[in-house]
Design brief:
The protein has 272 residues and is mainly beta. It contains three helices and 22 strands. The strands form five sheets. Strands 3-4-7-10-15-18-21 form a seven-stranded parallel β-sheet. The chain has a five-stranded parallel β-sheet with strand order 5-8-11-16-19, with no helix packed on it. It is globular. Residues 1-46, 245-252 and 258-272 have low confidence and may be disordered.
Length: 272
């Protein structure tokens, strides 16, 4: 059983190195099924184009919105098998505000992600959510931005010591450091959180995490930071722009990502 190393270079010198004992053939087969640039980021209306195995799994189905939870079956790479909020209720975000991170209002994104049960989270309409504090996501959640234009700004998303998270279709940008304070992160009372570094998405000590079709730009620290024994993570079909160099190493699959408007570069190397 060989070790896999996957290195992806983006225009802004975003570099991730991967090492795992996963059998080589499985990841090779997934990469071989990808060809051409990722042209599937355009709107879901007015035609369909799917050029990789993830998008072919759901994108061109005319009734995809009738069974949103089927998206979980499309996860590839190390995060394959991630179910997110599958089997749970649908929670619809109706309120883009984030006025009180300790006691989030019903209908806000924060009030959904902290719940201690599986939830499939969708959005009622296009919205810009300006976070006042880091958004701490509890286990067994899907944040599904399909069918709406969802922007998250202000500060970033935190995935800390949890499992089974899917984040799809968000535009996360202009992320700044958060001051810290009392923040809701579960069904229990809010807890004290420290100041953040300003990551777009910070994944720490977590497993089975799938980030797909997200755009990330203009963060003061990392765009996606994967650290401290996080594993079984896939980042796919994402666009990274307007950022300085970041470098991380962990057990993670990087698949089908755009480096700019003109194409994708994926380099896969196997060492026995």
């Amino acid at each position: 059983m060989g070790k896999l190393y996957l290195v992806v270079f983006f225009t802004f010198s975003f570099v991730i190195s991967v090492q795992s004992v996963r059998p080589a053939a499985s990841l090779d087969d997934e990469l071989l099924q990808f060809s051409g640039g990722n042209s599937t980021r355009r709107g879901l209306q007015g035609g369909c184009s799917a050029t990789n195995i993830i998008d072919k799994c759901w994108r061109c189905k005319p009734d995809w919105d009738k069974d949103r939870q089927a998206l979980a079956k499309c996860a590839a790479g190390f995060a394959k098998g991630t179910t997110g909020g599958s089997g749970g209720e649908t929670y619809i975000v109706t309120d883009p505000s984030d006025a009180d991170a300790a006691n989030p209002a019903p209908g806000t994104l924060r009030a959904g992600v902290v719940q201690g049960k599986p939830l499939w989270i969708t959005f009622e309409k296009d919205m810009v959510i300006t976070l006042t504090q880091e958004l701490v996501i509890n286990s067994d959640k899907t944040i599904d931005g399909r069918g709406a234009k969802v922007e998250i700004t202000g500060t970033g998303l935190t995935i800390f010591n949890v499992k089974n998270i899917i984040i799809h279709g968000l535009n996360i940008h202009d992320v700044k450091e958060a001051p810290g304070g009392m923040i809701k992160n579960s069904d229990g009372p809010p807890g004290k959180r420290e100041k953040t570094d300003g990551d777009g998405i910070c994944i720490t000590g977590s497993t089975k995490i799938w980030i797909d079709h997200c755009s990330l730009s203009k963060g003061v620290d990392g765009l996606i930071d994967v650290t401290l024994k996080s594993t079984d993570v896939t980042i796919s079909n994402c666009k990274f722009t307007n950022h300085h160099k970041v470098s991380k190493k962990t057990s993670i699959s990087i698949l089908y990502n755009k480096r700019n408007q003109f194409g994708t570069l994926v380099i896969h190397r196997r060492h026995q």
